[in-house]
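Summary for the lay section of the report: proteins are chains of building blocks that fold into shapes. Here we show the chain for C-terminal processing protease CtpA/Prc and then a coded description of the shape we predicted for it.
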Amino acid sequence: MRRHNEQRASCIQPEKLREDVDFAYTKLKEMHPQLYWYISKKDLDYKFDSIKKTITEPLTPLQFYFKLQPVIANIREGHLSLRIPRKKFTSKEIKNLENKKGMFSRFEYYVENDRLFIIENKDSIENIKPGTEVLTINGIPVSEYLKKYRKLVSSDGFNTTFQSYFLKDWFFYFYVAENGFSDHAKIETLYNGERKMFQLKRETKSETEIKKDKELEKRTAEKKINDYVAFNNSYNRNFKFLDENKTIAYIKVKSFSKDYSEKFYKETFEKIKNSKSSYLIIDVRNNYGGSLDEINNLYSYLTSDPYVLIKPSQVTSKIAPLKTSYFRQSNFFQYAYKSLTYPTFFFAQTFSTYKKDGKVYYKMKADKTAKPNKDTFNGKIFVLINGGSFSASSIFTSKLKNDKRAVLVGEETGGANDGTVAGFYSYQILPNSKINLPVGLLLVQPNITFTHTRKGVIPDVSITEKMQDILDKKDPQMEWILNEIEKEKNQNK
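The coded shape description reads as follows.
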């Protein structure tokens, strides 16, 4: 740990950093199955060559990250990103942080262009009102940070909605990695034309609060099946009926985590079937994705015909699946166990690929024909999407749209309509800066007729949520669906 932190703070000679640039590009060309999907080889060659010419003086790994990551972001693959080099903490430091409240994380944010707003202040810190704009942090304009951080973030392709959703969640991740943890911060704000200064503090939790946190972390049966997240005291999955007669069922999925998902969907769709619901609303707004197995299982409840979720997944070579950093992040005992099981892993991965028409593919359960579930829902389906719907959420919704199985309402998704590169990763360490570069090894594409738009999944009904809607606790996208359902019910009468 000490060595890591010393290396992170030290400057690296220009020639060594240029070696890291070459190393990164070589590994991308070797392992990434669709590197030139959104940028030509000529243009990407030029960008990598150009960045090397700008490295003329020693840089710390963090400074180097801010130089190289914008080039990686220009590949326009949302899953492809350097890991920002962060300080490592001792067990004592970690425990100390756990016993303190967050400083910036106790607010909810909204990003609009190069402006950052607070839209929720659960603990009424300094009585800061929702709708307050944060102008500066410790004297530095927030707009400067946002312009800098935007260059680090890419969606899949030429999507127009993803960045603002991602930045509202990750702004302070970048900020703290760049500026370090602090117990104080001075922010300048603007609300209703009035500027104010506030001194934020990282407060120590009381014994009661620490006890409450421990209680929240306990996994009850309900918490397991709804996939409870103690960090923000919420559930990844929720189900309810929206009317007394149970004609409208609603499922909210914040992340396709797979944990206990089979049991959740089994129980949920049994309830929907028993209630003879006519309408189903599935909400995957702000869902950054996750498990293919979960969306494959969920899809089985939404169709009455056999289906194939994704097309065969392409890899660059037969040995690509063996580059998945099998021993990564293993302690001594895990390493010893994995050493014993490695032959099984090696054998399984070696026979996990096949060749067809000169290309190499990886065997996946989701590219096989699947049967509809016995409790499949045959009514009308609406799906809520926005720029925070990414990765598996986009695979799921593009398949539903292609099969004309649902009406999509909201905004263009953050993930591409025609697929992405992810699946599993090879974690490459740049040899001199020691920055981690995870490279996705699988080209994962929904089993659809491709649009070739190089954008996200486009909704059937486009409705944008504004900040004022959030402040007023209005949901215009949901309201449109409920009004549409009411119209249909009246027509049927």
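Put simply, here is one thing we learned. The first helix runs from residue 2 to 9.
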